[in-house]
């Protein structure tokens, strides 16, 4: 056939670096990581396949392992009541709500879940998003703009950083858990901006430490900013009743402007929430892009989270067991002179080993003892603080902890002596 004539000039030859995915810097980085692992004889520590439910134990490669890599802290993701709630919701509402919530995706289970979250927090209202990550991205991206400032802890989760970037606001980080460093930034910059939001986490998931909420509240009140707390790992984990950082620190819910959390940890579902005053929540329901332009949460995801919240309240011994076993792990790790950083011994305890190669090697060695623990490698943390990160579970036993720490001690000394 004839070549169609065109008035557009022919493009010059574009360098392959800009047209091929395998020339993208990200792919080059992946190749380097894999080659490094192969050279050292360490298998890829990511994407291990779990063949059933993952709680205090899990099945990997057909073998039952003690499991420290899942944030199913209260073991509710396989609780019969939680599973039953999911089955009933699936049968009643089908597998998808087939529209965004404002359009025709609203179901009674969404409203029941949001009401339960708001009541648990003792705030006016709450809204759930289909992803925890998208909750932070959309909320910060929507609420803040170029005349505003976002101040966050240097260890804040990626979702807050991405939300801040989307918002177009100025973003500054302050030293980890350091209210004085925050104060310095506010003294210098508060007056240059309109809205200012401080973002911290309830329980930092790499370190298992927590902020002094009272001090952050005092600072935010004095500088007239908003305070947002990401409770992904602290809600339904910290406090005797599982009410999160506010219970742990004895601070009224109203002292924090934006409570954020996820449904993917103790809540045994998937998604995130924002809880706070009516004006905030209504605005997000009508305008936050990740809510408005995204499908409503599937009923079989919302219902298990609602059931998990109820079971947490009905069976308070789960929280007590989680707190006991976490404390035990921390004590026993310290007795063996392991470096546990600043962990307060609630649900998350790292053992810092100081090199990515050692962390990956120890994780691989422990798996051969049927113990599953994730190595946290550079660049997720600085190289000198590469670690094994232990998530505790209320169903862990002291015997499992002893066996794990014994195996770790033996494998570690075999590699250093
Ligand atoms: N915030 C924090 C502090 C997190 O740790 C995570 C993920 N674990 C998220 C937000 C994102 O939540 P999700 O995985 O439920 O999307």
Helix content: 40-55%
Radius of gyration (Å): 23 Å
Low-confidence stretches: none
Give the name of the CATH superfamily of the largest domain.
Answer: Type I PLP-dependent aspartate aminotransferase-like (Major domain)
Distinct compounds present: 4'-deoxy-4'-aminopyridoxal-5'-phosphate
Q: Tally the helices.
A: 15
Estimate the mean pLDDT confidence. 96
In CATH, what is the class of the largest domain? Alpha Beta
- The CATH architecture of the largest domain is 3-Layer(aba) Sandwich
How would you portray this structure in words?
- The protein is an alpha/beta fold and 417 residues long.
- The chain has 2 domains: 38-67 and 316-416, Aspartate Aminotransferase, domain 1; 78-314, Type I PLP-dependent aspartate aminotransferase-like (Major domain) (Aspartate Aminotransferase, domain 2, 3-Layer(aba) Sandwich).
- It contains 15 helices and 13 strands.
- A 7-stranded mixed sheet has the order 3-9-8-7-6-4-5, sandwiched between helices. Strands 1-2-11 form a 3-stranded mixed sheet.
- Strand 6 (196-201), helix 8 (213-222) and strand 7 (226-230) form a beta-alpha-beta unit.
- Helix 2 packs antiparallel against helix 12.
- The longest helix has 19 residues, at 317-335.
- The chain is globular and about 65 Å long.
- The mean pLDDT is 96.
- Bound molecules: 4'-deoxy-4'-aminopyridoxal-5'-phosphate.
- 4'-deoxy-4'-aminopyridoxal-5'-phosphate (PMP) binds next to helix 5.
- 4'-deoxy-4'-aminopyridoxal-5'-phosphate binds at residues 131-133, 136, 157, 159, 201, 205, 230, 232-233, 262, 264, 272.
